[in-house]
Amino acid sequence: MTGSALLRTRGVSRRYGxxxxxxxxxxxIDLAVPAGQTLAIMGPSGCGKSTLLHLLGGLQRPTDxxxxxxxxxxxxxxxxxLARLRRHHIGFVFxxxxxxxxxxxxxxxxxxxLLAGQPPRRARQRALHLLDRVGLADxxxxxxxxxxxxxxxxxxxxxxxxxEPLVVLADEPTGNLDxxxxxxxxxxxxxxxxxxxxxxxxTHDARIAAVAxxxxxxxxxxxxxxxxxxxxxxxxxxxxxxxxxxxxWR
Length: 250
Ligand SMILES: Nc1ncnc2c1ncn2[C@@H]1O[C@H](COP(=O)(O)OP(=O)(O)OP(=O)(O)O)[C@@H](O)[C@H]1O
Hints:
The protein is of the alpha/beta class. About 35% of the residues lie in helices and about 25% in strands.
C-alpha cells in the first residue's frame, strides 16, 4: 500500500477558499521519499513549497489525498496522535528559528528531547552532544539573544535532531542568514546527508539544492521538474538513501 518509501503522498492537495477565490496551493501531488534521501524543493514564491512541507510534517491537513510516514497514514490521525508523531519522529527547522527566548541553547535542545520522552539525564547529555556536533559547545549556556543568526539556526538544527527523527523538515533554513552563516548550515546539512539522515528542505538557495540527492521544482502547486525522474537539477541524484542511521550524529 505505501511501498518502501519512508515518506509518501498520494494525490495530496491543499486548497484554500472557493469559487473565484480558490487557491490550489498543493495540487494532487504524488511523492515518494526513500529513507536517507536529501530532497530539496525549490520554486517561485507562492508555488506551494511551505504548504507541502507543512502537510508532510502533519502541521496542516490536506483537503484531499493521503500522506504516509513510516507506514502510518498521518492525514487521518487525531490531533493528539499527530502531536505525538511530531514530538517523537519529526525534526523541524524554520527560517525564523522558533527558539524559546527565555531558555539557554542547551535547554532549548534538552526540552525537545524531554518532550520526546528521553529521561532527564540522557536528554541533557544528548543536548550537549548535539550542540558539540553543530560547533556550539562553548555557547551552550547562552540565551538565543546572545547568539548570532547562524548560531541560532545551528541550535535549532541540534533541537530538530534531539528526538532522533525519522525525517528532518526544513523551511527556508538559510533565509535569514548571511553568507558565512549559510555556509555553516550547508556544511551541517552535508554531514547529515552523509550520515543518512532523511531530509526535506524547502529553499531558494541553489547552494543547498546543490548538495541534495534530489531536487524538485514546483510551479502552481505541482511538480514541474524532479531530478530523480529526469536526471536534471543540481543534486548528485543518488536518491537511493542509506537508511535512517545517523552515524556520527547519534
Ligand atoms: N492560509 C491561507 N489562506 C489562503 N491562501 C493561502 C494560505 N496559505 C497559503 N496560501 C496560498 O497558497 C499558495 C502557496 O503558499 P506557500 O506559502 O505554500 O508558497 P511558497 O512556495 O512556500 O512561497 P514562499 O516561497 O513565498 O514562502 C500561495 O498562493 C498562498 O497565497
